[in-house]
Amino acid sequence: MTAATTRTRWFSLRRRLLVWLLGGVTVGWLAAVGFAYVETRHEIMELLEKWERHEQLEKRVSKELTDHLLKTMLTPLLFGVPLFGAWIWFATWRGLRPLDEVAAELGKRAPERLDPVVPAAAPREIRPLLEALNALFGRVGQTLDNERRFTADAAHELRTPLAAITAQAQVAARARDAAERDHALAQLTTSARRAGHLVEQLLTLARLDPAAELPMSELRLDTLAAEVYADHGAAALEKNVALELAAPTPVTVSGNAAMLRVLLRNLVDNAVRYTPVGGKVGVGVTALHGEVLLTVSDSGPGIPAAQRANALRRLHRLAGQDIEGSGLGLSIVARIAELHRAPRSGRRDRPTGAERTG
Amino acid sequence: MRIPLAEDDPQLGDGLMVGLRQDGYAVDWVKDGIAADLALKSESFDLLVLDLGLPRLAGMEVLARLRGRGQNLPVLILTARDATGDKIAGLDSGADDYVVKPIDLDELAARVRALARRAAGRAAPLLQHGDLMLDPAARQVTRAGVPVELSGREFALLQVLLENRGRVMTRTQLEGSLYGWRDEPDSNALEVHVHHLRKKLGAELIKTLRGVGYLVAK
Asked: What is the pLDDT of residues A137-153, one digit of tens each?
């Protein structure tokens, strides 16, 4: 039975109507016949009582009359049932034809057509169904639009590093001296690395999008932060940026370890990237009144208030930056925080701070 | 020929700049719209290579301001935007060519040559003067059918002079079209190039107007 509950039970509305209507008509007819039979028989009996002298005749007439009565009342039923059946079949077929029209309209739809279904005529009974369907179309359309825009943006965004790769490769091939060739090859490597990074970030986002439900487990956020911290130590050192971890006590949260690692990596990577040489990047994990606060702060310039909303947008890079980035990091962070139902804030004094309550 | 290149991507900008320099153009690379607008306002250039997605000031705005000032140098839009609407808007706003990234450097150079040719009022790809023939695409000069070896700067200088036959080109104009911001021409570099050209192509070709500049007579 459990299988049956998950599957649609299909039935023909028309056959149901036919059975019920025809059954009702037959029962009604029989009841009417029965009533008429009893009534007339009663009348005949009364009449015959006055006809006392001929007992023989009385019995014969009575039998003949009732037989005849039954015959005349039941015979039409014999023809009536198929006739009524045919009529009801026709009537329900006519009556339910708008359903066919709606079905036909939906059936011949191209998969990319997601505008609301508005049949010329539709029975009121299916109105809630159509409304729900149109609402679903709307939502699917929105998602599809987002995806399409994202794909277009992503392809657009990949064009520039690819153009750089082409240009630098050609420059290297036509180089007039070794220094020029070496420079072009170094630039070529950087461009290829950037394109690779962009593709990786795009894949991360693509994997995140359909995952409305992430598998969550209890995990130690302070250990996770320490791991990410360790991964970035070399890059920070190379840039002469001081990386500080403040996770004094064990902090356990429920979350997806892989995704939280991506979130932390993006925040720390961002912070190290945008902090001037000699600056400071701090990662903090603290538990306070049952809430967990994860902060990533840096001594960099911060994101101007006016541009903060834009900074979280996909593929958006702040104007006038020489620093390479895919423009996807913060939107990945925003998405992961959202999936963990964590409020997120960025402040100028703590420009890339992310908070998570658990 | 002096070309400002407005492109914000560090690697692509570098690649295009070096690539166009290899083709003998003096390239000045600006990384945002405001810088591009300022450069175009204050100096004279021969052709603009413009990215549309520029920070601080959009490429289309740079183009609108350029045309608004009545400057009619050829503009080549080089962008990642490939929608037909964008192309139409770009060309209708006064661009002369619209190229979608990624682009082959050789193709870009060919388009730059074509635009420069048209801007100079020519349709024929070769520049001819007497028995002298200059092929901008092949970067080759022949005299009576015999190839003449020229350095990059000498070639560029000869091309400018031939393109402006009959007009006196001032020192500033010539230096402007030979050197970008990063190149520091020493005071008599131009004379040296002219001297070499005369040595290779005959003293009669380039006339000196003392204190003013040079000219190739019609």
From this structure: 888 888 788 777 777 76
- Amino acid identity for residue A63 in this structure: K
Residue B181 and residue B85: Cα distance in Å, rounded? 35
CATH code at A139-208: 1.10.287
Tell whether A193 is within 8 A of chain B (Cβ): no
Name every chain B residue with its beta carbon within 8 A of the beta carbon of A187: 11, 14-15
Hey, what CATH topology would domain A217-339 get? Heat Shock Protein 90 (3.30.565)
Query: What is the dihedral sign for C-alpha A99, A104, A105, A109?
Result: positive
Residues B69 and B134 in one domain: no
pTM of the model: 0.59
Range of the domain at B183: 127-216
Q: The complex's ipTM?
A: 0.72
- Domain limit, last residue, from B61, B87, B119: B119
The residues facing B128 across adjacent strands are B133
Buried b (16+ CB within 10 A) or exposed e, A220-236: bbbebbeebbeebeeeb
Strands A280-288 and A242-246: parallel
Q: At what angle do helices A257-274 and A329-339 cross, to 10 degrees?
A: 150
Total count of domains within chain B: 2
Q: In chain B, which residue's Cα lies nearest the Cα of A167?
A: B15
pLDDT in tens, A52-94: 666 666 677 777 777 777 787 777 778 778 888 888 888 888 7
